[in-house]
Design brief:
Blueprint: H1 7-22, H2 33-42, H3 46-49, H4 56-61, H5 66-77, H6 85-102
Length: 107
């Protein structure tokens, strides 16, 4: 039995496979009505596609309206900074460490 493949044959097969992958069809078919409908449905939210949640994860936010989400996002970003005793201590320690690196002895 002969198990060795000639390098030229391997190269030719690789070129042919590459040309097949890169070739373009002569004609591009127009999308059908069902293709267009499927594309439109894929961009919709689950709530507009289905009358009820399809998974248990969807149940949690199913009845939340867009306005509710906007208010939640706004309040999430407007929280004042709060420091505990530990975080205040570590902030001061880091500030001291950084000033020591810079060569300053302030604070």
């Amino acid at each position: 039995t002969h198990t060795h493949t000639h390098p030229r044959a391997t190269r030719d097969r690789a070129k042919m496979a590459s040309a097949t992958r890169c070739s373009r069809p002569d004609r591009v078919s127009q999308p059908t009505a069902s293709d267009v409908a499927a594309l439109r449905q894929s961009t919709q939210t689950p709530k507009s596609k289905y009358p009820f949640p399809q998974t248990s994860s969807q149940e949690y936010g199913w009845d939340i309206e867009k306005e509710d989400l906007i208010n939640v996002k706004k309040s999430a970003f407007s929280q004042p900074r709060k420091n505990s005793e530990v975080t205040s201590y570590m902030e001061a320690a880091w500030r001291q460490k950084e000033q020591a690196k810079m060569g300053g002895n302030e604070g």
